[in-house]
Every structure is written in C-alpha cells, then in structure tokens.
Amino acid sequence: MSEQEQQSKDGGFVLPPPNDAPATNTDASTNTNPGVAVPVTMNLGQSDTSSRDLLIGGGILVVLLVAFFFVRGSYANMLVRKRVPPGKANAAGWWLFIFLSSLSTGVILAAVNPVKFLAPLTIAPLGAVAVVALILMLVSGRR
Fold first, then answer.
1. Average pLDDT score, the chain
2. Residue 43 predicted with pLDDT over 80
3. Which of 50, 49, 29, 26 is nearest to 39 (CA)?
C-alpha cells in the first residue's frame, strides 16, 4: 500500500517512520530532512530556582520580619491605649506578627518559584496558620 493510499484511508494523517539513529539537530526550524521527526523535550512542572533568587527572597523576608516586629509593638501599645489589658494586647501583637509573617512568607515563596512553592502542600499550611493567627489576634485584642 503506497503512502498516498494510506493517507486517503486514514484521513490524511501519517506518522513518520521511526528513526533508529539519535537526532543531532534539536531545533525544528533548521531541520534539513523534513521526513525525520525531531524529538522536542519540554520541562513542564519543574522550574529550577537559583540560589541568588532564594537569597534575595530571604533578604526581603528578614527585612519584613524586622518591620513586622515594630508593627507588633505599635499594635500592642495602641490596644493598651484603648484600655485592653497589657497581657491580652501583647498576645494580640504577637498573633499579628505571626499572621503577617506567614502571609509574607507565602507571597515571597510564590514569587521566587511559583511552580515549586504554590503546591498545596506548601501554601495550605501557611494559609491555615495565617487564618488561625488572624482569628486569635482579633479575639485576644478584645477588652
């Protein structure tokens, strides 16, 4: 059966014959032999994170943690001025710190490598900690 007959029988789609020799040319635009299929490999789902990206993300996180520490103290002092007992105000300040820290950690991890760190096993615990800390901050900041 010729190739023309097979094309009309199969609706015009014909797979190229297998090639036993490995292809040395991986660029499809410079393929000189149009009858030979060129294998193309794509790396889906895995993204390499350089140490430079992780270092920049870690530096940003440290700066944010220092800022959140000062925000914690200011929030606790504001609650004390509103006649909340100092123990409850201090606890609410620490819960605010934990909330902001977990939220910023998730955002930085997502920015550094979204393919790797936006997985549910990474984001779900950080989100759960943030929600629990937010609820506890609001509850403990009451009079």
1. 82
2. no
3. 26
- As given in the structure block, the two tokens for residue 90 are 């201090």
- Output the six-digit token pair for 92: 């609410």
84 vs 66: CA distance, rounded Å: 25
- From the list 143, 131, 139, 136, the residue with the least C-alpha distance to 86 is 143
The pLDDT of residue 40 is: 58
Amino acid at 43: N
Instruction: Tell me what the mean pLDDT of segment 30-52 comes to.
Output: 63
Residue 92 CB burial class (10 angstroms; 0-12, 13-18, ≥19): buried
pLDDT of res. 17: 77
Q: CB–CB of 113/53 below 8 Å?
A: yes
Calculate ∠ Cα 30-34-40, nearest 5°.
Answer: 60
* CB-facing half-sphere around the CA of 2: CA atoms within 13 A: 3
More confident residue, 48 or 112: 112
SS3 call for 24: coil
The closest alpha carbon to 58, from 117, 104, 119, 123, belongs to: 104
Q: What one-letter code names the amino acid at 38?
A: V
